[in-house]
Amino acid sequence: xxxxxxxxxxxxxxxxxxxxxxxxxxxxxxxxxxxxxxxxxxxxxxxxxxxxxxxxxxxxxxxxx
Length: 65
Hints:
This protein is mainly α. The protein is built from one helix and two strands, in the order αββ. The chain is elongated.
């Protein structure tokens, strides 16, 4: 295998891997964060349905107290 063939093979493998990752990312469902005015994730199924998990707090620079 000469240099060009090796470089072409590596390039092709990287492109195939990147394409598979892109397809996988686009097929994932988006988590419903910040829905209904909450900064956490609302659990939709199961015994904890309706509860909020994982609140995120943001320190705002315009708060003086």
